[in-house]
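Pasting as-is:
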Amino acid sequence: MIWSLRGFLLLTLSLSFVWATDEASAKTGPAIALHYGHNAPLEDLKVFDIVVVEPDHGYDPVAQRAKGSELYAYTSVAEVQPSRSYFKDIPADWHLARNGHWNSVVLDQTPTPWPSFFADRVIAPLWQRGYRGFFLDTMDSYRLASHFDEAAQQAGLVRVIQTLHERFPGIRLIMNRGFDIVPRVKNKIEMVAAESLYRSWNAGANRYEEVPDADRQWLLTQLRTIQTRDGIPVLAIDYVPPNDRALARETAKRIQADGFTPWVSDSRLDTVGIGALELVPRRILILYNGAEAPAVNYTSAHRFLQMPLNHMGYVVDYADVRKPLPKDIYRDRYAGVVTAFNGYMPSALRREFSTWLQTLKNQGMPLAIVGDFGLAPDKSWTDTFGIQGTSLSISPPLQAQKQHPMMGLEVPPPPVEKDSAPARLLGPQAARAIPLVEMKDQKGQLFVAAALMPWGGFVLDPYVYNELPGTEQTRWVVDPFEFLQKALRLPFMPVPDITTENGRRLLLAHIDGDGFPSRAEMPGAPVAAQVLLKEILEKYRIPQTVSVIEGEVAHHGLHPELSGQLEDIARKMFKLPHVEIASHSFSHPYLWDTDVKHGIFSDSNEVEYHLNIPNYQVDLTRETAGSADYIRQNLAPAGKPVSVFQWTGDTAPNEAALKATYDAGLLNINGGDTFISRGNPSLTAVRPHGITKGNYLQVYAPIANENIFTNLWRGPFYGYERVLETFEMTDTPRRIKPVGIYYHTYSASKVAGLQALRKVYNWALNQPLHPVFTSEFIRKVQDFHTYAIAIEGEGWRVRGAGHLRTLRFPIAAAAMVAPLSTSEGVAGVSEGVEGSYVHLTGAQAWVANPASALVPSGPTAEARIWLHDANARITQWERKQQGLRTDFSLQGHVPLQFTLSGMAPTCKVSANGQTLAAAKSSEKERPDLRTYRLPDAAAQIQILCAGR
């Protein structure tokens, strides 16, 4: 569904999630977060400029710095806990008091050796690890002692800070309290922090509290004095329950209105709080019953539900209800929770699961129940969710009543059967529910099989999807995009998009090495690899990723008599500048996880698990790193890397296999099998971006290979030409996938297969696409999974790794021109079937909210030149001379094509110092668009316009 601009504005303004702040205050000073948890989500937190962490948890400040975010180490100056490594070396006579609430020892600041001890034992090891910023806590703790010399303690603290600056040039310090010494150290600290301005944590009473007005006024006076007298920014840290995001948001707004940098989080500082930025949670948790499928790959949750969520910009985590249920699921990182069951879960699990889900509901987590409740709803469930699912006392027959427009996406809802198992809506929530499928019994009682509820929504089988009898095909009954968006109340956000860059759909091609030695059914019976080299790789000079199976081509493999010829062909392939080198393993495992038997492996122990290489058993390191080493040492040109590992067989590696590729420094791809076509025109055949197992991501091939389209290579051998249907159906009405040409070497062994390849390549070359190497696409998918988005002022701050460069907005491109004029890190915008694609210039950007009052209107907003589209990456973008000059660079893989919008007759374009003439435009093209073509794949471009 394409949203209208007016509808988008109304929705954006009505969402409580979005809160406006003064742009000046939002854009001055660094955005700061504090997270002391053992597993701080640093990929999410990289959107903040400074993140204070507990350094003993083992974080890498150098790696975080490369992401645009600086880690500051938490250090306690005047207190120490016995768990610290240096505690035993602190002399007993330095102990001043105890802090029972935190089980720590208060330290005397007056001993002469203390500053050097603190510098040597606390700061120096952290400095060595790469920390350059430090959060100095407990500055006033000496006041917990019964007897102390105030002046001497303060002098000791000053000596500590002076010593740190002498020992560590360039050190950056945030000091928590210590107000009295600020005038003496103001040139040595960058910020002063204070806790509990509006909301506090009472450690003694173990509860959150509102700060008394008198205490707040005193603290306000102190902080304003520091700002005005000393000119030092202030960080105010407040505490609210982790599930109360509304209170955290309100508190942060109050702090920011006072002119301070806010951070509002839980008492332990181990959730993502709200500060000058509010992280937009991009994770969805899906619960499934692992007993329903051999592995998560084969569950309906993964096969059907993840793709719509990925397309809407969300990353999916999975939890098997047979294992301990996840703890600490809050809205700081999770946008919602989905349950996806095909039937009841084991009875021993139901009570705990029911309590867990009710707790999430009561904490305000949006929930979507898909398929089956997984249990028989009891009274507590009914009271919580307003749903009665048992003891319904139906008087048959049931008759269909109302049906919401989101039902019947690909097939109509099935007729009501006598054994239908609907539910009743009860209590106050019933009045606020929106039934999606409603039916009535003979007594006039109303029942529902799907509804949107105040807490989320549910849709029960068979109203989710239906399997077509006599086929392996499935059709959606409910529109999964609309249902998940409305049930989970997913807010509007810019969507990181992996399908497009600079307005053009991506094109990639990768080839599995299977059949390298196969004889082609052509004159002379050449090997398939030779035909592939001459007829495809040397003729279609677009980025292509080519792999070999070591066991097929090496002298120590299955075909030693052909090895010399095969290796020579591989070397010629890998020398081509437009060919990227990949491995397709050593022995081509057919089953990567032997603990997960499925398909043909379920019923037989005789099935081969890999190529029959004598005296060899599958070893994950040998398959991955070993095969890459063989290619690098024997086939690759000097200096050209082996970049990619392409999964073989069932393409379902376990965590250990994925880890092996990561350890070998290889990007990985394959699996998924997206094959929507006119013969199977269903979104259920479109797979997600990939799957995470443990700490490792498997990236799926965008589109299935020719094996799927040729009946497992049994024919028709021209069947791969039907992939063009898949390309078209994954581009409209939604662009869900890039164009991915993916096949095996053996496709070149059949005349019909080779003709199909030519047809596919020729089609791709006639489209306005953006060619990339497979490695570039893989990195985009990886970037998607760690992309961070935050609300900042009246727009969004986004940070990624720099590979994913497109944000998708569900509004027309013309409506985005004004917001982009106040945005940063943006080069242009172009139209898409779902709205518009915004082109980013690098790893980070700030994009104005189109609903913002800051967005200009009228001629000012139109007086800029934008990149409309390009088939290459932006490597530099800079506006000069008040927008009258724009310098930018493009780097691609094929001759450049780019189009500029907003061009006036007085604007001139040059590339590499030579004036360019625009190509002739079609009659349908906008008059302000100009298209340029260059014979080179890279150029430095300049636009000069006379004053307007």
